Amino acid sequence: MITSQRTLTSAIVLVIAASLTVSLSGCFSNPLENFTDGLIEGTVEKVIEGSTGIDVDGDGTGGSLPDSWPAEVPVPDGAVVFSLAVGRSYTASITVGSEDNAKAGYEKFLASGYEMTSEVSLGEDTYAYGLQSDDWIVQYSWGQDSEGIATVNISAGPTGE
Questions:
Q1: Cystine design at 101: which of 62, 71, 96, 130 (Cβ 3.0–4.6 Å)?
Q2: Tell me: domain 2-158, CATH 3.40.50, correct?
C-alpha cells in the first residue's frame, strides 16, 4: 500500500510540474496570474491529501521553497512562483529570467554529480531533462513565455521510493 501511495504521489507531482511547464512556456496564459491569496496552495493540497491521505505542505503564494527541500537538489537563481512538498517528493517552479539562466541551473545538477538519463525537446524553447544521482531522481524542465522570460520546473524524489 505504501509503494502505491508513493507511486501515485510521484505521478501527481510530475503531472503538476509538466502542466506548469507547458502553461508557463507561453503556449497558454499563465495560470498563476489567475489565482490569488493561496488558492493554488489550498486546492492542490486538498486534492493530493484527499487522493493519497498524505499530508501536503505547499507554498502556492510564491517566494520560497518548502523548508524540507533537500540540499542535495540544487535550484537555479530566480523567484519561486510555486513549490510543493509531498512526503519526500518535491516540485517547484522558478522564474529565472532567461534561457541562459535556465541552462545554468541545469549545469548545477551536472556539477553536483547528477547524470542525465533522458532529454526531451518539447518544441521551441521548451526542454525537459531526466537526471539522477545516487539519492535523487529529478525532472528539470523549462520554457519561455511570449516575452522570453524563462521558468524552470523541478520535480524530485528519492531513488529508493
A1: 96
A2: no
